[in-house]
Amino acid sequence: MKHSSNCSRRHFLAACCGVAAVGVAGPLWAAARVAHGDPAHPTPRPGITAARVLPDSELVDYSSCQSAFDAIREIPQIVDGIRCHCGCAEIPGFYSLLSCYEGAGMARICEICQGQGRLAARLHKAGKTLDEIRASVDARYG
Amino acid sequence: MRWTRGWSLAAIALLAGTTAGQAQVRASERGGAFQVVNGTKITVEYSRPLVRGRSPMFGGQIPWGEVWTPGANWATTLEVDHDVTVNGHALATGKYSVWMEVQPKEWTVILDPRAKLFHIAHPKPDSAQVRFPVTPSDVDGPEVLTWSFTSFSPTGTTLQMAWAGTAVALDIAVPPVEIPPLAAGVGERYAGRYKMWWVSESNQSVLAVVAKDGRLLGQWSGAPFPVWNNLTFVPVAEDWFDLGAMVDGSLYDVVTDVVFEFAVTDGRATGFEIRGPTDLVIGRGSRLP
């Protein structure tokens, strides 16, 4: 999978076309997502660590998402309190956004998982609380 | 072994049992169509009869005055997940069985909140129903009864039933877009002119932002398509916005997986980052003097 910050303008164009392709479904969704409430985020498990997050050796073919995995390893106790909005939360065995970075490593191929992880790390670094991070993740991806 | 009548019946019974368990063929197979318009989902489900040489269909096979469901077997249903209007008549969120009283000229559409009705259970007039007249039009075919969404706009769609040379169009209007207004004075922190660029390109463009009536509007000199020349910023969170395209003063399209994040210092935006779905920065802007 090739994905990097270099997509820039092309990414924006693709986003424009993607929204156009689904007709005019975007506008109300965009407005409505502002009003979304907290969709039952999980409680971080006591003593949770990043021990099960995929190591670099599992990311050789997914170098563009390596920074997201690196960020997750720094804040397992935070991402374990966030519900993923990509749809994987319904998968048996899934507990939190941290789960996306473990096991089958869905975050290796899922832009939503990567985005939520990077956003959580960025906001944590900026001093935001877990609740504030949850609210931002919901606003952006909910 | 002699092939007796008893064996024949047993074989038929066995065959029938096998058929009932495995074959699902129907003369009028199930079908459906849905359309999302501005966040409102409109769904039609129905069984699809074929003409099969029957003529005339309306005023013949289906006599004038009959209250008919435009489908077969279980009544056709129309479901909407927001309140809408159909040909100007209010229809509340819900699922309805669809009926049409066929007449030589003007038909009556009947939407009955009892969604699960068999096609011969023609509903009697009821105050809970939504009823309104329609004028059918002539069309070529189709052989198979077909519901389709023939057009849509930001404000609605046209749902059409067509069969056996006749079509009926239902104009469905959906709730308007409601962009949350900015609190008084908030928009001014972003107002101004910005140079902006994509991280992988050297080209720069200019984005002029103005606050007006609780909305944040923009003019983008380097927009990739003309439709993006005039923008509205759709609030996502504090200092975060989705980008919406405006056409003829109305919201036309919104990019929801790219977000503008303004950097604000001392109550005034100094620039912004444009972040893609992976939260990586794909573009930037800085305030011009």
Write the layout of secondary structure elements.
The complex is a heterodimer of chains A (142) and B (289).
Chain A: H1 8-21, H2 26-34, H3 66-74, H4 76-79, H5 111-125, H6 130-141
Chain B: H1 5-22, E1 29-37, E2 40-48, E3 67-68, E4 77-80, E5 84-86, E6 89-91, E7 94-101, E8 107-112, E9 130-134, E10 137-138, E11 146-153, E12 156-163, E13 166-173, E14 192-198, E15 204-212, E16 215-220, E17 230-237, E18 240-247, E19 250-265, E20 268-275, E21 281-287
Antiparallel strand pairs in B: 1-2, 2-4, 3-7, 4-7, 5-6, 5-13, 7-8, 8-9, 10-13, 11-12, 12-13, 14-15, 14-21, 15-16, 16-17, 17-18, 18-19, 19-20, 20-21
Number of domains of chain B: 2
How many H/I helical runs of chain B? 1
Helical/strand content category of chain A: mainly alpha
What gap, in angstroms, lies between the N and C termini of chain A? 25 Å
Greatest interface by residues involved: A-B, 44 and 46 residues
Strand order of the largest sheet of chain B: 14-15-16-17-18-19-20-21
Strand content of chain A: under 5%
List the helices and strands of chain B in order: HEEEEEEEEEEEEEEEEEEEEE
Give me the Rg of chain B, rounded: 28 Å
Rg on CA atoms of chain A, Å? 15 Å
Largest sheet of chain A, in brief, is: none
Shape designation of chain B = elongated
What is the total number of structural domains of chain A?
Answer: 2
Helix-and-strand structural type of chain B: mainly beta
Q: Which regions of chain A have little confidence, pLDDT < 50, spanning 5+ residues?
A: 1-7, 18-38
What percentage of the residues of chain B does DSSP assign to strands (E)? over 45%
| Helicity level of chain B | under 10%
What's the total count of β strands of chain B?
21
Distance between the termini of chain B: 103 Å
Ranges of chain B where pLDDT stays below 50 over 5 or more residues in a row are 1-20
Helix fraction of chain A, binned, reads 40-55%
